[in-house]
Specification:
Number of domains: 2
Strand content: under 5%
Number of helices: 19
Strand order of the largest sheet: 1-2-3-6
CATH architecture of the largest domain: Up-down Bundle
Radius of gyration: 25 Å
Structural class: mainly alpha
Largest sheet: 4 strands, mixed
Distance between the termini: 91 Å
CATH superfamily of the largest domain: MFS general substrate transporter like domains
Shape: globular
């Protein structure tokens, strides 16, 4: 009788001993790097010179470009209210000076608060996944803004809540910087992070330039256009991240490093210094359009973009200069220039000089940008000083990374303090001059701190040229 060719059913023993289904194989990219489904990279080691030259540099650059695009739009959303607020009266809104400064300050307060949790999101979810999620979150404040600015009777509380939503854009900086730090070796990390930060900072300049040109029409001010203009760009950034970025399976969040950094004196001292530099950049960037509109109403607020632009460009230059002469020295010069520029702005206000006012602020922004770069290069040097061996150096590098995250969050609170300081000054004295003199005093205190701890001749850190 012919034997049946039908496959016999598997026995219970065969079913229970059958090997498990193998996971999908990864695609070798070369030099030990493998990409698995979900754009997950195995074997990533940027300190491996052979791997870096073969495939690492190309992969890192691709991720950096997409990261800069997403972070740029994060800053656009974060700074959107800074240029929308001075245009609200023209759109029919009746707001007090204090209310306008609240709308400017709240996004910075929320953004600063989100920076720490955003940092830890990257190792948990992956750089590509979190970039997509954080970019999609930007659509919420954009859609909300487009809706509320069309109705001048919108309650002030609703406006504050919608402005607070824009804070998610400020959190993007922390997650973007954390993600890119995993892709680059120590020797190239400073330049990559400088470009990443500068690319994000440019978002503030871009939104302050473009929005006034887009929303002012023959039929009146159409503020909803400010938000609707950004929506397709965000969707484009999502597609770019989906197609170009990767998730590193070896990326780990070092919560302990943050905890240790929080106990170190230098973390809080250098955070105060960074509050003076980056806090001034983001704070004055946010109020500059409103100050121009109030002081020189005949001038377009789009002029304000120059401040954020020169500040963003100066950031990597400040970092490069700090590499050569020391971060503390560059920071000291930056504070001196910042104080001088603010005094110049006070004198220009008294004289009613538009050129003097804008010129002084441009000097201020250049100095804040250079100071941002120098402080970020100063932090690793401060924590590296005194290392005894390789293990100690590695530990100090992790603590320095924690300090960078904390300092970045603290510095962002300047975006809240500066507008509220101007509001308090206006309420108490009828103008902003008192607030500007207070800022000069703060710069003097921070310069003294920087000199005494980090640059004083004869001190250990001063001699090391941190």
């Amino acid at each position: 009788m012919p034997t049946s060719t039908a496959e016999a059913p598997m026995t219970h023993e065969q079913l229970t001993t059958a090997p498990p289904v193998a996971a999908p194989a990864g695609v070798p990219l070369g030099a030990g790097v493998t990409r698995r489904p979900g754009r997950r990279l195995d074997g990533w080691d940027p300190e491996n010179t052979a791997q870096w030259r073969a495939v690492g540099r190309t992969i890192a650059r691709r991720n950096l470009v997409a990261s800069v695009c997403a972070e740029f739009l994060g800053f656009v959303v974060w700074a959107l209210w800074s240029v929308v607020v001075p245009l609200l009266p023209a759109a029919g809104f009746d707001l007090t000076v204090d209310q306008m400064f609240w709308l400017i300050a709240v996004p910075s307060l929320v953004g600063a608060t989100l920076r720490i949790p955003y940092t830890f999101a990257v190792p948990v979810l992956g750089g590509q996944r979190w970039t997509i999620i954080s970019a999609l979150l930007l659509l919420v404040p954009l859609v909300a803004l487009a809706l509320v600015v069309q109705d001048p009777t919108t309650p002030f509380g609703v406006l504050v809540a919608v402005a607070a939503l824009a804070g998610v854009g400020g959190g993007n900086f922390a997650s973007s910087m954390a993600n890119i730090s995993f892709f680059y070796p120590e020797a190239a990390k400073g330049r990559a992070l400088g470009l990443n930060a500068a690319g994000g900072n440019l978002g503030t300049a871009a939104v302050q330039l473009v929005v006034p040109l887009v929303v002012v029409t023959a039929a009146g001010v159409r503020l909803e256009r400010a938000a609707l203009l950004v929506v397709p760009l965000v969707l484009g950034a999502v597609v770019l991240a989906w197609r170009s970025m990767d998730n590193l399976t070896g990326a780990r969040s070092d919560v302990r490093a943050y905890a240790v950094a929080a106990t170190r004196r230098h973390t809080w001292l250098v955070s105060a210094v960074y509050l003076g530099t980056f806090g001034s950049f983001i704070g004055f960037s946010s109020v500059f359009p409103t100050l121009l509109k109030a002081t020189f109403p005949e001038v377009s607020v789009s002029v304000a973009f120059l401040g954020a632009l020169v500040g963003a460009v100066a950031r990597p230059l400040g970092g490069s200069l700090a590499d050569r002469v020391g971060g503390a020295r560059v920071t000291l010069v930056a504070f001196g220039a910042m104080a001088t520029a603010v005094v110049g702005a006070i004198l220009a206000l008294r004289a009613g000089s538009f050129v003097g006012f804008v010129g002084s602020f441009l000097v201020l922004f250049v100095a804040t940008g250079a100071g941002n770069g120098s402080v970020y290069r100063m932090i690793p040097a401060v924590f590296r000083h005194g290392a005894t061996d390789d293990a100690d150096r590695a530990h100090r590098a992790r603590v320095a990374a924690g300090c960078l995250g904390i300092a970045g969050a603290v510095g962002a609170f300047g975006g809240f303090l500066v507008p509220r300081g101007f509001a308090a000054s206006t309420a108490a004295t009828g103008g902003i001059e008192a607030a500007l003199w207070a800022v000069v005093g703060v710069y003097a205190l921070l310069a003294t701190l920087t000199w005494a701890v980090y640059a004083r001749p004869g001190s250990a850190l001063g001699a090391a040229g941190v």
